[in-house]
Amino acid sequence: MLELTKKYKSGTALEILQEAILSGELSGEITQNELAANLGVSRMPVREALIALEYQGLLERESNQHVRIAKLTEKNIFVIFQDFASIELDVLENLPREKFLDLSACDSQMKFHRLIRNYVREPFREKILEIMTEIYLRFVLDNAKNLERVNSAFENLLRSLRDMNLENLRENYRLYVEILASEFAFFRACIKESVSENETR
Fold first, then answer.
1. Contact predicate 109/154, CB 8 Å
2. Could you tell me the pTM of the whole model?
3. Helical H runs in the chain?
4. Whole-number Å distance between alpha carbons of 54 and 81
5. What whole-number distance in Å separates Cα of residue 147 and Cα of residue 140?
6. 77 neighbors 181 (Cβ within 8 angstroms)
7. What whole-number distance in Å separates Cα of residue 187 and Cα of residue 189?
């Protein structure tokens, strides 16, 4: 198992495990005891972290009291981000057009997606957007190898909102989300390659 405390110097058990799972450095089946020993903490914070990670779709509970890290294949990553786009586009398309100007004035991507979440009226969809924004999107923005490409796609999206052009908005939104997903997948591929190289040394 990855030596989590050496790799990740700070953060709660939940934050450390999220980062290790999202990056692809932690995979397969794990137990509470192994994680607690590896993190140097009691089982309670690990148990709480595992409950949150299961809720976030990052692991699955096995029948033998073990948990398995969810497989985030490239295909799965694109599906996750397409679902994210589908919900947000639906919200955008049903907003009064004057709200487009508020959204187009956002100076950060996190602020933009949080504002969209404020317009959601269904608690279930709001929770999905919260998980996507605060975990998956944040991870991509913190680790993108080509952040300039992401930012450029986001600027095109904001331009569509300012122009109030729904057709362009749909197209630019889908392109933006595809770039986010590809950056996520590319980062994980780089980590996997790096881990493989270290194991062969």
1. yes
2. 0.83
3. 4-7, 13-23, 32-39, 43-55, 74-93, 98-104, 109-118, 123-131, 138-143, 147-163, 166-200
4. 18
5. 9
6. yes
7. 5
**What is the Cα–Cα distance from 125 to 127, expressed in whole angstroms?**
5
At residue 60, the 3 state secondary structure works out as strand
What confidence tens digit (pLDDT) does each residue in 77-88 have?
999 999 999 999
pLDDT at position 168 is 92
What domains can be seen in the chain, in order of their start residue? 4-71 (1.10.10.10), 74-190 (no CATH)
Residue 69: its H or E element:
strand 67-69
pLDDT tens column, 109-155: 999 999 999 999 899 999 999 999 999 999 999 998 899 999 999 99
185, 78 in Cβ contact below 8 A? yes
AA letter at 107? D
